[in-house]
Write a structure and sequence with these properties.
By secondary structure, the chain is mainly α. It has helices spanning 4-7, 10-32, 40-53, 74-80, 88-116, 125-132, 134-143, 147-162, 166-179, 187-192, 196-217, 223-240, 249-257, 272-295, 301-317, 331-345, 350-365, 369-374, 386-389, 392-413, 418-427. It has a domain at 241-428.
């Protein structure tokens, strides 16, 4: 039985409530009505798992449907293989439960990490973060993507790293990287920590696991599955870069500053080639600036947390293809900014911070269809999702990035003391 003292803690009430809401919103319908299941991405995982059990190991040339190819690392295919032991209905419900577990773990571990660095975290911040990401969360669970499992693995790995369980941490981080390659950006966290040994250890395990998977898929030519995987990425990604649902920074620049599409706002009318180079330049700047700030931050409490938040944002924003469901992983940056608001309020740029927070709330309001119906823009040019046309999600990501840079800058002037470090170790 659940202890009554736990129910008095908002965190446990929140976790229990979220679990029940998600179960009745998704899994319950799938249990009583198998025909209601249409998890597009998960169907690809289950289909690929069945191929492997049937001995059809050419997984990158056997698509679930046209446009639904397996685009993940070779080891990821091995990870999904046990799913084929169950029917699509049972496996889908199991996948949803796994997502629920990792979502709750992500919330709780984010709180632990924030407290580890001495920042005050209120349990009701969970509710604010949940409200903020509810639209991408619903979309993510509705199509069965792997973002929640991936970010859960990443933060469990980081938590274990802080507890000095380095090998297990490197293994879990390697699994997360196998799910989606953009997770490689988290290796930069070890650059900030000046722990290159951990960075190379993680990279070695990632490459080793995927090489073993390639041996399994094609023993006589183990490099062929890797080449096939790269070919799938090379041939499918360009077709998706400029479509309306794509919410990457690349598409954001094209939508507002490019030309050649009916949805472009053509503020500068740049060619696609110019947009590509602009995207490359901005990407380098967005990675380099926080790394340089962190370099001079030394003992700042804000350095590690700001960098973690920024890496979460960049993992989505800098990916050439990103969908609105991918933005569900923004939970940690939101929780940390809420915890750091007291410090930001003492910053000289209080007005800028206030405007940024207001804009975030304003943009989040427009992730809901009813907001667009209220202003008479539903549909917009025949598109029933105006939030995707106006690139609301990348805007929110850029605002969060800006706020985290401000926290990092504020941290340069407010280094932590010995008491904070000792207290943080006690909390962890």
């Amino acid at each position: 039985m659940i202890k009554i003292s736990y129910l008095k803690d908002f965190r446990w009430l929140f976790c229990l409530s979220i679990a029940l809401i998600l179960f009745f919103r998704f899994s319950y319908n799938h249990i009583i009505d198998p025909g209601s299941i249409f998890l597009m991405d998960f169907n690809v995982y289950h289909f690929t798992a069945n191929l492997i059990l049937q001995g059809k190991l050419d997984i990158y040339h056997l698509a679930y449907q046209n446009g639904f190819e397996f685009k993940y690392a070779p080891f990821c295919a091995i990870l999904f293989t046990p799913l084929a032991l169950f029917s699509l209905q049972t496996a889908s419900v199991m996948w949803e439960f796994l997502n629920f577990i990792f979502l709750i773990s992500y919330f709780l571990i984010s709180e632990k990490i924030i407290q580890f660095y001495g920042f005050t975290h209120r349990s009701w911040y969970f509710l604010l973060a949940f409200i903020f990401i509810i639209t991408p969360l619903w979309a993510n669970l509705g199509v069965g993507q792997s973002d929640i499992v991936q970010i859960g693995l990443i933060f469990i790995a980081l938590y274990l790293y802080m507890k000095e369980k380095r090998l297990l941490s490197a293994l879990l981080l390697s699994l997360a990287m196998s799910l989606k390659i953009p997770a490689l950006i988290f290796l930069l966290f070890f650059v900030v920590k000046k722990d290159l040994k951990m960075m190379f250890q993680t990279l070695f395990i990632f490459l080793g696991l995927n090489f073993l998977a390639c041996l399994f898929l094609n023993f006589h030519n183990p490099l062929q599955p890797f080449k096939d995987w790269q070919e799938v990425l090379r041939t499918t990604s360009p077709n998706l870069q400029f479509i309306v649902p794509n919410q990457s920074l690349y598409t954001f620049l094209f939508r507002y500053f490019g030309t050649g599409d009916s949805f472009c706002f053509e503020l500068l009318k740049l060619s696609k080639s110019a947009i590509f180079w602009l995207y490359g330049f901005i990407s380098v700047v967005m990675v380099s600036v926080p790394l340089l700030l962190a370099r001079f931050s030394k003992e700042s409490r804000a350095k590690d947390l700001s960098m973690l938040g920024i890496l979460v944002l960049l993992m989505v924003l800098l990916s050439p293809v990103a969908w609105s469901p991918n933005y569900v992983i923004f939970i940690f940056p939101i929780l940390f900014i809420l915890s750091a608001l007291k410090g930001l309020w003492k910053f000289k740029a209080r007005t800028v911070v206030s405007i940024s927070i207001f804009l975030l709330i304003f943009l989040d309001f427009f992730t809901h269809k009813k907001a667009w119906r209220l202003v008479g823009l539903l549909p917009y040019k025949g598109e029933s999702y105006p939030d995707l046309v106006f690139m609301i999600y990348p805007m929110m990501g850029l605002l969060l990035y800006f706020l985290l840079l401000m926290v990092l800058t504020y941290g340069l002037r407010h280094p932590e003391d010995e008491h904070t470090r000792v207290e943080a170790r006690r909390i962890l």
